[in-house]
Amino acid sequence: MFIYRKSELSALIRRFHSKKAELLILYGRRRVGKSELIDQVISQVGGIRLLAREESRHLQLKRISSELAVFFKDDYLLHAPFPDWDAFFVYLMQHGDIRTVIAIDEFPYLVQEEPSLPSLLQYYWDTGLSKKNLYLILSGSSIGLVESQLMQYKSPLYGRRTGQILLRPFRFIDYYSYVNNLHKAIVLYGIFGGTPPYCLIEEPFIDLEEIVCQKLLMEDAFLFR
């Protein structure tokens, strides 16, 4: 289910139609909807979301190689994965003439395994990627890590990003438009807040007590603990 985020979605799509390389940082706490927002952008303009995982550098590179090989229909890459992150950025350079979204979701996981990654990206951005037609999105759930690794003055990528979006939970006004009932919206928003998986009820018009029981009070409920 995807609702609202109109301003963020339109901003990301507007940047897709800019005539310059884009390096955009999308961050916010877990479960706030970053991946879903990226997927919505890709569904409209095309691209690929590479989801990083906490695993070894070798496995990270192998999996990303496989996903890019399928996306770009590259049989060679499928059988000869990237040996290092330099090869990954060179590959982006070679495929940077056609406008497409390359999103790396949970980028800090990659940095934890390869601390030099921001510095490598700085090098390739300065020596060629910034002159390509690349639209690169880096996202992360740890706000502190994203800001320190990608945005602060000491970060190698300081001054390279072309934009950033701190994705926040829904505001009440957005939630009210979804529920379309003032009393019910006040009660549900007061209980569940604006985090999408918590507050988006599949059937928001059913009885309030039933909603609370299903999501909070039953022992197997999503939010019981």
UniProtKB/TrEMBL annotation:
InterPro entries: ATPase_dom, P-loop_NTPase. Coiled coil: none annotated. The keyword Amino-acid biosynthesis does not apply. Residues 2-173 form the ATPase domain. It comes from the Archaea. Keywords: ATP-binding, Nucleotide-binding. GO terms for molecular function: ATP binding. This is ATP-binding protein.
